[in-house]
Design brief:
The complex is a heterodimer.
Chain A (H helix, E strand, L loop, with lengths): L1 E8 L8 H15 L15 E3 L8 E10 L6 H9 L8 E6 L6 H4 L2 E10 L8 H13 L5 E5 L4 E5 L4 E7 L4 H7 L8 E2 L6 E7 L8 H8 L2 H4 L3 E13 L5 E3 H4 L1
Parallel strand pairs in A: 3-11
Antiparallel strand pairs in A: 1-3, 1-4, 2-3, 5-9, 5-10, 5-11, 6-7, 8-10, 11-12
Chain B lengths: L7 H4 L25 E7 L3 H4 L3 H11 L4 E7 L3 H10 L17 E5 L6 H11 L14 E5 L15 E3 L7 H14 L4 H8 L5 E2 L4 E5 L5 E6 L8 E2 L27 E4 L1 E2 L10 H4 L4 E2 L2 H15 L3 E5 L9 H15 L2 E3 L7 H10 L6 E7 L3 H6 L6 H13 L4 E8 L6 H21 L3 H4 L4 E8 L16 H17 L6 E5 L2 H11 L5 H10 L13 H11 L4 H4 L14 E2 L4 H12 L29
Helix pairs in contact in B: 5-18, 9-10, 13-14, 14-16, 16-17, 18-19
Classes of the chains: A alpha+beta, B alpha/beta.
């Protein structure tokens, strides 16, 4: 039975890097007592793959992981067994049986995020209309948004515009999300109260063209001009694949 | 919701933030308002090292079984974070509650190696606990040390309120009961508590003792300051290992720890009696755990952790008498569960090779011979019951079985060592390489060269060993010995199959000073810490020039501690501890080593009357 799990990552575990999170889940799967399918070879480990690594410090309510078990079990039972092994901050949101043989990583087309702000200097004012006008002029009414992408080997010019599926300014970060996923926002100086703006974005997440919110934000608000004014916080909402009609649907629903 | 002591901007700018967030699976959370005593257990090194230590895990389990005690963990912040904490005045905190250490009742520090001493001062400093015991108030935690280095606590004595000598299983409950009852009755003061604690067996309260010195700097007298404070402190021995707490649900780190696996302690102590080995003396008598208990713990720990590897732990696992039965069980259980078994360095013989071939990939794994010395004469001096025939036979079987990589561990600078003994090290490696090409002459079928790795460390004499009186060498002499090995190796016919690594000489000398130092050394350690030394066990942070300056500035001659053969009549700084092995036995062993190079049989062959029979357990009583 091929399984897809949707889970969250917030609180202290947001500082756990991707490789460590993989090891965390390998151990959790073993502890769960589920009849896991293992890799072959001299040191077998559970067959396990993740849709997309989440950067350290980013919270999420839409992470996906695929694994397999040797024989079919009710999804409720699987969810209960996994949930009993989780640390604070990793909540199992759903467990679905996977019928598509492709792994989440291969299916992944898009991801949605909420981006919020952290004030560094008092000179920065969080004016929703100013942010709106930047997004209007640089994205909505623009014909291209070219940035230089630096990799280890080369630099290349990339137009980000085709990678942005949707972007909008929120008057504020949804309070129920804030209180659940970023409960320590005040201690950490994130601006998430009533009148603070946040940006919603749905962007391309294909492995070939993964658009990271940090890169988009830096190109919208020139990094060099603003790095002393504010930093950003990122919350991943969900990840998407395309259905038969070519429409983006959450990875968890498609499975 | 779970808080972190460090804010987001700090956690985002340091290496491995996962070291500091707590929240690990199987860590113990309690309501602090419901406990009477909070204990912060510190391993004074980085998280990945500290989390790999079995001793803390055992005591963490034991302490937290008490409803009135909450034991938490704390490790040394890495220099990147330590600098930020200093700059922003952030106090050191425990992982579970993320609360400042200063709020705790006890700060327990395990002393596993001497080179962590500056890290102890860092922990106290960052916790805002005064460095010196005498400067602490009633509100400061009680700072208690334990572990092997507590067998000579004198160089760090002023920084501790008390030391626990021996195995924690025995007296911690009594110590906690005393503390809690004094707190509850209102009779608690730091002074009163320390005075009463000094009467508990195994507890050493340094402030209740004083030392006088002779003109030559040696100790004249070490004595208790008050009546009723014991003259000798007795080492504690757990005589019921099977019944003692064991961490069946060890904490699982997010960050990969050095020991990223289930660790099963099969035996404590060692029957061998190698004369250089402190662990072989201070954990006597050798005590084996029962097969049933070990099977039960192995399964429970695998199920409670999800680790994909298990390792057996002891000082000499080949001497565990039920190893064949245990291995049969583990091989069966682990293949079903898809778990790897890693074997500690076993004595290389047909049994161990058979077991290893079942659990390891022969092509990748290497065999380890802890030969310790190159010549037979030298091995007899150190009482390492290993002959060249043993080594050659083991190697022969291994090569025929498909192994190609061999690691050899040796020590340089052992008592009575000559250059002939030093040269015997590469000669032994050459003999092994030669054996390989003799056994497998056909280039096509043998599948490549053998690789013989020689590794040497410099010998450091430790308290409560027969070599506690021995002299050390100068750093220059150590390096000369290493270069003798290196040159000789390059002249060997099969030198292309040999490689050689040696340790740093400066850290060895410092380790030697701390290992056998007296109370005067504390000033040097404090000076070095104040001038930037910390993480001395880490090459990249070791600053020998600051240490040189520290000795100079404190007017202390390091050679006094290292380059002097002590007379057996000298009062040694650790003489007030009764470690179980008798002075007579140690002196006799020292004579046998240096006089006639006489071998002393192991505890199963013949009792050598070391004094540990008094504990009425283990090998002395046939189990």
């Amino acid at each position: 039975m091929d399984i897809r799990v949707k889970f969250t990552k917030f609180g202290p575990v947001k500082y756990v890097g991707h490789l460590d999170l993989m090891r965390y889940f390998q151990k959790a799967l073993r502890r769960s007592g589920l009849p896991l399918t293992f890799t072959k070879g001299f040191s077998p480990h559970p067959v396990l793959s993740f849709a997309s690594p989440l950067g350290v410090g980013i919270t999420s309510e839409g992470e996906y992981m695929d694994f397999s078990i040797e024989f079919a079990l009710p999804v409720d039972e699987i969810q209960q067994k996994l949930s009993s092994q989780m640390a604070y901050g990793v909540e199992i949101r759903s467990v679905t049986e996977r019928h598509d043989s492709r792994k989440a990583m291969a299916e992944l087309m898009g991801a949605s995020y909420l981006v919020y702000f952290k004030k560094i200097s008092d000179d920065f004012t969080f004016d929703t209309s100013a942010i709106k006008s930047v997004i209007d002029s640089k994205v909505k009414k623009a014909s291209s948004l070219v940035v230089t992408k630096k990799t280890k080997k080369s630099e290349r010019e990339v137009d980000l515009l085709p990678l942005i599926y949707d972007i909008d300014v929120y008057d504020r970060f949804p309070a129920e999300k804030r209180d659940h996923y970023i409960p320590d926002w005040k201690d950490n100086g994130f601006l998430l109260s009533e009148n603070d703006p946040a940006i919603y974005m749905k962007v391309c997440a294909k492995s070939s063209d993964n658009l990271k919110p940090e890169l988009l934000m830096n190109s919208l608000f020139n990094e060099n001009d603003t790095e002393d004014l504010f930093t950003i916080g990122i919350h991943r909402l969900d990840m998407f694949t395309t259905n038969e009609a070519g429409k983006l649907v959450p990875l968890g629903e498609k499975a | 919701m779970r808080k972190t002591a460090l804010t987001d901007d700090i956690l985002m700018q340091i290496e491995e933030p996962g070291r500091y967030i707590g929240n690990e699976i199987n860590s113990t959370m309690k309501d602090k308002s419901q406990v009477s005593l909070r204990f912060a257990f510190c391993f004074p090194d980085v998280y990945e090292i500290g989390m790999s230590h079995l001793g803390i895990q055992i005591l963490y389990e034991m302490f937290n079984r008490r409803r009135d005690v909450w034991c938490e963990r704390v490790y040394s912040p890495w220099p990147d974070l330590a600098a930020i904490m200093k700059e922003r005045d952030i106090p050191l905190f425990a992982l579970e509650s993320q609360d400042p250490i200063r709020d705790f009742d006890f700060l327990g520090i395990t002393l596993q190696y001497e080179m962590c001493y500056t890290n102890i001062l860092q922990a106290l400093d960052l916790s805002k606990i005064p460095l010196h015991s005498t400067e602490r108030s009633n509100d400061d935690p009680i700072v208690i040390g334990g572990g092997p280095c507590a067998f000579n606590p004198e160089p760090i004595a002023v920084f501790f309120d008390m030391f626990y000598i021996g195995e924690g299983e025995n007296q911690y409950n009594r110590l906690f009961d005393l503390y809690i009852s004094m707190k509850k009755s209102g009779s608690y003061s730091r002074k009163a508590f320390l005075r009463k604690a000094a009467e508990i067996p195994g507890i050493y309260v340094p402030s209740l003792y004083d030392v006088t010195y002779n003109a030559d700097g040696t100790i004249q007298k070490f004595y208790p300051l008050e009546e009723g404070v014991p003259e000798t402190v007795e080492r504690q021995v757990d005589t019921d290992l099977n019944g003692s707490p064991y961490p069946a649900k060890p904490v699982i780190p997010y960050v990969r720890a050095t020991q990223d696996r289930v660790v099963l302690e099969v035996m404590r102590g060692c029957i061998r009696g190698c004369r250089f080995c402190q662990a072989g003396m201070i954990y006597r008598p050798c005590r084996q755990k029962s097969l049933d208990i070990l099977k039960k713990y192995a399964v429970e720990m695998l199920e409670n952790t999800g680790f994909d590897e298990i390792s057996l732990s002891s000082l000499s696992t080949s001497d565990f008498e039920q190893l064949p039965e245990l291995m049969d069980f583990l091989i069966d259980e682990c293949s079903r569960r898809k778990i790897n078994i890693t074997l500690p360095s076993l004595r290389i013989d047909s049994f161990s090779l058979d077991v290893m071939s079942k659990v390891q990939d022969i092509k990748r794994s290497s065999l380890t011979f802890a030969a310790e010395a190159g010549s037979q004469r030298m091995r007899d001096v150190i009482n390492k019951g290993l002959t060249v025939e043993n080594i050659m036979n083991g190697a022969r079987e291994a090569f025929l079985g498909g192994w190609k990589k061999v690691k050899f561990y040796f020590m340089l600078g052992l008592p009575t060592e000559t250059d002939d003994d030093v040269k015997a090290i590469p000669d032994l490696a050459e003999q092994i390489a030669h054996l390989y090409y003799d056994l497998l002459p056909d280039k096509k079928t043998r599948g490549g060269r053998c690789q013989i790795n020689i590794s040497t460390s410099f010998f450091v004499p430790k308290p409560f060993t027969p070599f506690q009186w021995a002299t050390m060498c100068t750093p220059e002499e150590y390096l000369r010995k290493a270069s003798v090995v290196n040159h000789r190796m390059k002249e060997e016919p099969n030198h292309k199959s040999l490689s050689y690594q040696w340790h740093d000489a400066k850290t060895t000398v410092l380790e030697g000073i701390f290992a056998r130092g007296d109370r005067k050394i504390a000033e040097v350690i404090e000076y070095a810490y104040r001038h930037g030394c910390c993480f001395d066990a880490w090459n990249e942070y070791f600053h020998p020039e600051i240490w040189d300056e520290a000795f100079l500035s404190c007017g202390i001659d390091p050679d006094f501690y290292t380059l002097r053969e002590r007379d057996t009549s000298e009062v040694l700084p650790w003489d007030f501890i009764d470690a179980g092995v008798s002075r007579k036995f140690l002196e006799n062993e020292w004579d046998r080593a240096t006089g006639g190079q006489q071998i002393t049989p192991n505890c199963r062959e013949k009792c050598s009357g070391c004094g540990c029979r008094q504990y009425r357990s283990g090998v002395c009583y046939g189990y």
